[in-house]
Amino acid sequence: MTNRPQRSLALAQLANSVGDGAFYTTSALYFTRVAGLGPARVGLGLTLAWAVGSLVGVPLGRVADRCGPRGTSVLLAAATSAAVGSFLLVQGFAVFVAAACAYTAAQSGLAAARQALLARLVPAGERTGLLARLQSTLNGGLAVGAALGGFALSVGTAAAYRGALALDAACFLGCALLLLRLPRAAPPAAAPAVAVVGQARHPGILRDRPYVLVTLLNAVLMLRLPLLSLVLPLWITERTEAPAWLASGLFVLNTLAVTLFQVRAARTVSGLGSALRALRRSGVVMLACCAVFALSAGRSAGPAAAVLVAGAVLQVIAEMQQSAGSWQLSFDLAPADRVGEYQGFFGTSVTVARTLGPLVLTTLLLDWGTPGWLLLGALMVVAAYATGPAARWADGREARHSRGWSAGPQPATGLGGGEVAQLRVLKPSRVAYCPESLVTTMVCVPDASTPEV
Fold first, then answer.
1. In 3-state terms, what secondary structure has residue 439?
2. Percent of the chain at pLDDT exceeding 70
3. C-alpha–C-alpha distance, residues 412 and 434, integer Å
């Protein structure tokens, strides 16, 4: 495969991340100063909206698997553009909540659909490397968008705020057009499966306990998300004598490091074993990071700043290792024909971390201080090492399902007189009955004629 699809995916990522950067920096003030909503109502509305977004990621991912990830991605990118545009019409709380729910639903579904699209267009061995490049592109685009949003903030007029939101809507429309340039993705090749009637080849996602456990452990590892944006600014101002602007500097340091080094950090991750090693390294480095951050408590400006910079360097190293490992696991442990559905579920780990993280981390770190930092680091190590057994459990379960597939007729076991009955390959919903063994089986074949949207 040529690199054209990968370039188009990267350009689409760049387009929507530039818009997101402008939106993230201006939306709060737009909703309070221009739309006239109170801060508490904005917070409540966004909490409700992201709760909705976390619920619809899985069904929209399933839509991408069944109807085609390219068409689904294009439609959801266009829907995100329309949702952002609807923010310009917000006049009251009810309209705001409706627009925010549409926005988060489209965003969650788009993330799952694009992962499914990537899985169909990019060979398995190249996915983590491409995701690393996309993550670097994301950070670069956010920086550009944040700069444009900062210009709108400096102007400070209603027109400037609306211009930033209009830019985000236009960027997502551009993202949809770029995704439309991608080739139609062929459905994943799969051989027939034999399963007992009424039993699906794979259980529903919530019944896939190994994958659910891996996702839960990833949510614990993702508790690092509120560190730079919320906890460290408060820690710096309340527990150290370092200047408040250092929080912004640490955020820039993180963004630049991910932009420059994420691809290099992901090069060694190419399978289950290397992904688990990356996660274990991430957990250990995160423990060291937490211990270093704890050392900044009560120190004067210069020493505190030096310690905080050292902690931020360790944090971004752990982040890049954790990102590469979790990307690999999220694809390797998902059934090939249900990547969108599984990616939609795996993405809820980010939503859970962003929802619970602020409360957990402010209590743990700001109230408990050094013991809280050490407890957080220990929790990261435990989650990182526990992911190994959970992932091997999930991998073994997937392997057992795969061994139930065959390319041709299968002998039915347990037959009397040494006879071997052959089960014919049938379309879904048809049944092959083997009276000798009194076993009724259903053989499912993916319908390759299903068109891509």
1. strand
2. 83
3. 8
